[in-house]
């Protein structure tokens, strides 16, 4: 430490080292930013007592030269800290010196993930770790549904450092890295073309590039030449290029990089940043007149902030003992053992770790030895520059607007990104997969079988020596492939089993060289150890195929089955009860319900039962009886309709019952059962080769050498039922995974095909295909249940309540009407009841019915008298006017209220005539 005097106070000079590649743009730009940073810092804080003194060394892009420069600075200049080195590989050499000498190494441009404070606590990265962007990259890939990518990176410490974390991030979103393309740092154009030709013959069309702008711009020029920047291709750049895009030749950007996506370290546009950029440009041009249009990038901003952080940490330490503990040089040892140890190093490292302020790039804060992660911007290169289309943050994922308030969770939706112009000036999202230029197609095996044709049918055309493959499994596979977000070219190759027959073990197919297997292949745990299955496309499970029992022997009494016995009995009782109620209500006033006892009983029952067919001849005259009959007619109407419907079902549809209802019944009976040959449900079962053979075995039955039930997977059982729907039924028994398409381990098709199968819309289409090849079983009911009393007790309750209520009302009215007969205190109770009974059995001549009958009879007698009177008048030659009066009186007689008699009318007329005279 040195002292320097000035007008205000004494300042203490602290030596720091700077190791940069001054022949590169980043090195020259970084050094100028460091100088301006210290100048701005001490100008703003003139009272500070410490001043940093820069000791600059040029590493000239060589790792050994960088290490030698650092060793010289520590040993001879006793620097308290070193800003730099520029690259990760150089930093790997120097951080060991910092660890030994306790001198903090502060780098603003060494972004390799392998560098960390774990390897050396005295290494501080005042920059973003390259791995901090891998999640942003993987989310972009996930948002557009790309399932296979190719990594292109420079073959050095910088390029390889990000690959492990990037691969892991892509695997977390179900994206596979199909190929890694390593480009040497000093690759020639021919080497770049040779590598690009390899990529062209691959199916993947999504390329993630991680390299520096110099090599990256050359690769894009060659990619343009071979047509790999046209429509259908996807290029995603890490911030290794996008953060320094301004240093790329503008002609390369406009001609070869259009439509490229990139991850860019986001720097908020602030007045302080704009002011610094203008001042730096002016200063740099003054110091370097040969540079016409200098451009500033993220590394310059980080260099500015790193220098300020170091100056602040030194000032916080105060006037400390900035000295080195030196070792005896006379000791026979290496130079590394005698470089000395900084006494203030640990304290300075602690101050740097706790230093926070608002820098050019935002909040400057060291976390675990490196700059805290910031936001990344998703950019789309159009024209001469990159256009921002969205942001990525650790908390919210993809967002269109960084500053808009949102309660949404972590988003991976492409809807949160702006419009994108893809390579080839296309606005359509590339599928990410295409048919390779070398014509390679997927090799898909299909089994050659004669049985169960609806699943896979292989037809050979001898004239053209070709095979045509169709069937349920084939239609499902073709439908799914068409729905994938990329193009898949494939050939269906028939596979004949090694035994020369049409039957064989599907395990033989799994051992072959293939890209996939399509057929009626069951998903089992053992097979999944060697291959990958996508989600099952058929109904899972193992079921029994069992025959129906015929119930034709019961047809003679089938008319009784629609109703249960308790319901039959209840209906009969109610018919009797309603007959009794109607007789009570109608006996006194209705002649139809009178007469001899046998006649009254027959009439009452006839009336009640004839309601069932609505053919009753007798009329009911009492309002109470009419009320009871209306309710009972309603009940009978519902009963007859239900009975008719149930009986029709029994007569038209056979009453089919399965012969076996569960496995326990089979085990108890000891009957034989069968299974499809070479199916995984085998062991103790009888095998059959076709549905026809299965039908024969089931028809024989277990007692005659056949089988009582057949076990197989649900799709096979459905096919058998579709052929013999009236004879067999399916009973689920065991669980299985169903049919699935087979692919080699790690195939990228598996997750995509599974997603299509699980999509609700595609499920409906696959059901249509199933109905085409495996027609559903006809709608034959397994049994016709009889109607029971529980279904109608409410109706009987209503009818019974109505009848009882009518009886109560009648009894009250009857007793009240005849109370004078039994009101006498004399006589026993028995005699009173006998008297009421006799009165009930007698006709009620005072009722409306009998009064109407008597009045009708009287009118008939009066009509005869009137005719005789008219004839008398006519014989005596009465005047015409008198005849009209008599006729008028005749009309008045028809009035039920009663009018003057004919004689009275005649007398009146005579009196009136005399009076007129």
TrEMBL record:
It is a multi-pass membrane protein. Residues 443-776 form the Ionotropic glutamate receptor C-terminal domain. The keyword rRNA-binding does not apply. Residues 889-917 are annotated as: Disordered. Residues 889-898 have a biased composition (Polar residues). One of its GO terms (cellular component) is plasma membrane. GO terms for molecular function: ligand-gated monoatomic ion channel activity; signaling receptor activity. CDD domains: GluR_Plant, PBP1_GABAb_receptor_plant. The chain crosses the membrane at residues 567-585, 627-653, 792-815. InterPro entries: ANF_lig-bd_rcpt, GABAb_receptor_plant_PBP1, Glu/Gly-bd, Ionotropic_Glu_rcpt, Iontro_rcpt_C, Iontropic_Glu_rcpt_pln, Peripla_BP_I. It is found in: Membrane. Glutamate-gated receptor that probably acts as a non-selective cation channel. May be involved in light-signal transduction and calcium homeostasis via the regulation of calcium influx into cells. Glutamate-gated receptor that probably acts as non-selective cation channel. PANTHER family: OS06G0188250 PROTEIN (PTHR34836), OS09G0428600 PROTEIN (PTHR34836:SF1). This is Glutamate receptor. It comes from Eucalyptus grandis (Flooded gum).
């Amino acid at each position: 430490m040195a002292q320097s005097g000035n007008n205000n106070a004494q300042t203490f000079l602290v030596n720091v080292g700077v190791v940069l590649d001054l022949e590169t743009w980043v090195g020259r730009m970084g050094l100028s930013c460091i100088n301006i940073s210290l100048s701005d810092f001490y100008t703003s804080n003139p009272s500070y007592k410490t001043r940093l003194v820069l000791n600059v060394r040029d590493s000239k892009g060589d790792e050994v030269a960088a290490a030698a420069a650092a060793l010289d600075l520590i040993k001879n200049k006793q620097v308290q800290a070193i800003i730099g080195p520029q690259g990760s590989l150089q930093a790997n050499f120097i951080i060991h010196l910092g660890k030994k000498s306790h001198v903090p190494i502060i780098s603003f441009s060494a972004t390799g993930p392998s560098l960390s404070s774990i390897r050396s606590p005295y290494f501080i990265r005042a920059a973003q770790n390259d791995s901090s962007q891998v999640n942003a990259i993987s989310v972009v890939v996930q948002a557009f549904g790309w399932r296979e990518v190719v990594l292109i990176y420079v073959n050095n410490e910088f390029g390889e450092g990000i690959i492990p974390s990037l691969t892991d991030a892509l695997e977390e979103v179900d994206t596979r890295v199909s190929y890694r393309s390593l480009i040497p740092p000093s690759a020639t154009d021919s080497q770049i073309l040779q590598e690009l030709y390899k990529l062209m013959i691959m199916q993947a069309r999504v390329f993630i590039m991680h390299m520096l702008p110099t090599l990256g711009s050359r690769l894009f020029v060659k990619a343009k030449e071979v047509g790999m920047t046209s429509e259908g291709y996807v290029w995603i750049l890490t911030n290794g290029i996008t953060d320094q895009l301004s240093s790329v030749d503008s002609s390369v950007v406009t001609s070869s990089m259009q439509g490229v996506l990139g991850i860019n370290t986001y720097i908020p546009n602030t007045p302080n940043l704009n002011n610094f950029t203008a001042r730096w440009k002016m200063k740099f041009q003054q110091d370097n007149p040969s540079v016409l249009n200098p451009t500033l990038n993220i590394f310059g901003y980080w260099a500015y902030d790193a220098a300020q952080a170091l100056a602040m940490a030194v000032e916080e330490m105060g006037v400390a003992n900035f000295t080195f503990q030196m070792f005896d040089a006379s000791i026979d040892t290496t130079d590394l053992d005698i470089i000395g140890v900084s006494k203030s190093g640990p304290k300075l490292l602690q101050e740097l770790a706790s230093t926070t302020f608002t820098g050019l790039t935002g909040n400057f804060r060291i976390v675990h030895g490196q700059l805290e992660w910031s936001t990344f911007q998703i950019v789309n290169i159009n024209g001469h520059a990159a256009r921002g289309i969205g942001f990525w943050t650790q908390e919210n994922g993809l967002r269109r607007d960084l500053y808009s308030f949102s309660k949404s969770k972590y988003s991976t939706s492409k809807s949160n990104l702006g419009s994108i112009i893809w390579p080839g000036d296309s606005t359509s999202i590339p599928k990410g997969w295409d048919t390779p230029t070398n014509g390679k197609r997927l090799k898909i095996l299909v089994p050659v079988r004669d049985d169960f044709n609806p699943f896979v049918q292989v037809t050979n055309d001898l004239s053209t020596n070709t095979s045509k493959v169709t069937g349920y499994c084939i239609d499902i596979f073709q439908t799914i492939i068409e729905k994938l977000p990329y193009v898949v070219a494939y050939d269906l190759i028939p596979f004949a089993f090694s035994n020369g027959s049409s039957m064989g073990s599907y395990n033989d197919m799994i051992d072959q060289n293939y890209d996939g297997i399509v057929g009626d292949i069951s998903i089992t745990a053992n097979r999944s150890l060697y291959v990958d299955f996508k989600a099952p496309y058929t109904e899972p499970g193992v079921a029994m195929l069992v025959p129906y029992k015929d119930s034709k022997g019961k047809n003679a009494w089938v008319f009784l089955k629609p109703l249960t016995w308790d319901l039959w009995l209840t209906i009969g009782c109610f018919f009797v009860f309603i007959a009794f109620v109607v007789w009570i209500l109608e006996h006194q006033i209705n002649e139809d319900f009178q007469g001899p006892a046998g006649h009254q009983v027959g009439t009452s029952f006839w009336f009640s039962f004839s309601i069932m067919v609505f053919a009753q001849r007798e009329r009911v005259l009492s309002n109470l009886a009419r009320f009871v009959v209306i309710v009972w007619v309603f009940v009978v109407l519902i009963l007859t309709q239900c009975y008719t419907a149930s009986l029709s079902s029994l007569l038209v549809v056979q009453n089919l019952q399965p012969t076996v209802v569960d496995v326990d019944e089979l085990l108890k009976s000891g009957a034989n059962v069968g299974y499809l040959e070479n199916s995984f449900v085998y062991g103790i079962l009888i095998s059959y080769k076709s549905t026809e053979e299965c039908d024969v075995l089931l028809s024989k039955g277990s007692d005659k050498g056949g089988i009582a039930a057949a076990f197989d997977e649900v799709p096979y059982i459905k096919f058998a039922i579709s052929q013999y729907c009236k004879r067999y039924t399916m009973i689920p028994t065991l669980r299985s995974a169903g049919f699935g398409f087979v692919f080699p381990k790690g195939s990228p098709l598996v997750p995509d095909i599974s997603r299509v199968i699980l999509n609700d819309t595609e499920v409906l289409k696959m059901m249509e295909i199933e109905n085409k090849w495996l027609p559903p079983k006809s709608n034959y009911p397994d049994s016709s249940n009889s109607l029971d009393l529980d279904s109608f007790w409410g109706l009987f309750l209503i009818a019974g309540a109505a009848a009882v209520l009518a009886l109560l009302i009648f009894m009250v009215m009857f007793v009240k009407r005849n109370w004078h007969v039994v009101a006498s205190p004399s006589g026993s109770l028995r005699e009173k009841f006998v008297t009421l009974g006799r009165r009930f059995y007698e006709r009620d001549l005072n009722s409306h019915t009998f009064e109407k009958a008597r009045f009708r009879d009287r009118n008939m007698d009066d009509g005869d008298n009137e005719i005789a009177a008219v004839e008398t008048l006519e014989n005596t030659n009465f005047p015409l006017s008198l005849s009209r009066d008599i006729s008028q009186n005749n009309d008045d007689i028809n009035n039920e209220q009663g009018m003057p008699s004919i004689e009275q009318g005649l007398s009146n007329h005579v009196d009136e005539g005399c009076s007129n005279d």
